[in-house]
Amino acid sequence: MRKIDGLEHAAPLPGGCVLTVGNFDGVHRAHQHLLKQAKTLARASLPLVVMTFEPHPLAIIAPHRAPQRLTPPDERLRWFEACGADVVVVARSEPTLLAMTAADFVEHVLVSRFHPRHVIEGPTFGFGRDRTGTNELLATLGVRFGFTAHVIPPLYLPVDGAERAISSSLVRECLVAGRLDVANAALGRPYALIGRVIPGDARGRTLGFPTANLDCGDQLVPADGVYAACAHAPSGRFSAAVNIGAARTFGGIDRRIEAHLLDFNGDLYDASLRLELLKFLRNQRTFASADALKTQVMRDLDDVRACIKPDAETVRG
Fold it and tell me: Rounded to a whole number, what is the distance in angstroms from the first to the last CA of the chain?
């Protein structure tokens, strides 16, 4: 897969392409389905090109409405490649681009830069200034400029007795509400927190359970609680108990992401760490003493061992 930074570096491919445009935050099951359909449409004769944006356009035009990121840029690229993209063009979300009318966006960006033979999108696709462009307009402009527009129907997930369309918004909603099971079902994989290990106060080490404190930047952090996770560290893969929230027993007020890696010996400071959250175990609690907290942590570790299979990737029960 080839990555191109900036629209100005994107040149039309000989013979055209199959093109899809979007933020694709999370690259969830509906995104994966769309990309699979696009790859099938491309077959062996056309490249599949993904045009995406960095940062999210709302971060430029309405920062107060910008959603928290589900996937860091490199993670999103990794999933594009896994879904069969041949070329990914990362467009900078600049005011001049975001202010284009829907018709101008199609003519001067999609057609001029990509010469698509097919453009494939989801049912809620919007483009141009204020997202005024619709799939109906895209189809009309396709006739004018020589491409065929395709709309992929939504995928649904049962949530509390109702069918919900899978979307990035649904994933965020469920993560904030502590519904990791639903978020993971919508993603088609465990939600992963990705970042670098930063210094903590070493309180876990004094209790006998050293933890790695993760800084995941602007990525969305799920609801407070204790989670069973699979940790990917430079030295390998480990089952882990992850605590999200403040250290209430010790009067803490700042939210933290702290992971205790089972059967790990070593130093993770400043290392890259990936925490795949497999199961929500319990809510956060304030304990009467450090000894009471230690007893609960031992129970949490037993729960992690009980629910994660030996391959550290799947969950029992």
Answer: 37
Q: What is the rounded distance in angstroms from the CA atom of residue 248 to the CA atom of residue 188?
A: 33
Residue type for position 48: L
Q: Which of the listed CATH numbers 3.30.420.10, 3.30.70.20, 3.40.50.620, 1.20.120.80 matches domain 2-152?
A: 3.40.50.620
- What letter would DSSP give residue 111? I
Q: pLDDT tens digit string along 76-110?
A: 999 999 999 999 999 999 999 999 999 999 999 99
In 3-state terms, what secondary structure has residue 135?
helix
CA 128/CA 133 separation, integer angstroms: 6
**SS3 state at 204:** helix
> What CA–CA distance (Å, rounded) separates 172 from 291?
35
CA atoms of 31 and 99, how far apart (whole Å): 25
Burial of residue 287, with CB atoms counted within 10 A of its CB: 0-12 exposed, 13-18 middle, 19 or more buried:
middle
CA-based R_g, the chain, Å? 22
Query: Rounded to an integer, what distance in angstroms lies between the CA atom of residue 206 and that of residue 31?
Result: 45
- Within a 13 Å sphere around the CA of 109, how many CA atoms are in the beta-carbon half? 25
Strand partners, 30: none
pLDDT at 310: 64
In this prediction the pTM is: 0.93
As a whole number of angstroms, the distance between CA 142 and CA 68 comes to: 33
Distance of alpha carbon 27 from alpha carbon 10, whole angstroms: 22
Residue 147 structure tokens: 């491409």
Residues 6+ away with beta carbon under 8 Å from 206: none
Counting as low any pLDDT under 50, the low residues of the chain are: 312
Q: With contact defined as beta carbons under 8 Å apart, do 122 and 131 qualify?
A: no
Using omega within 30 degrees of 0 as the cis cutoff, is the peptide bond preceding 55 cis? yes
Superfamily name with CATH number, domain 191-307: Riboflavin kinase-like (2.40.30.30)
The 10 Å Cβ neighbour count of residue 8 is 10
- Cβ proximity of 229 and 278 under 8 Å: yes
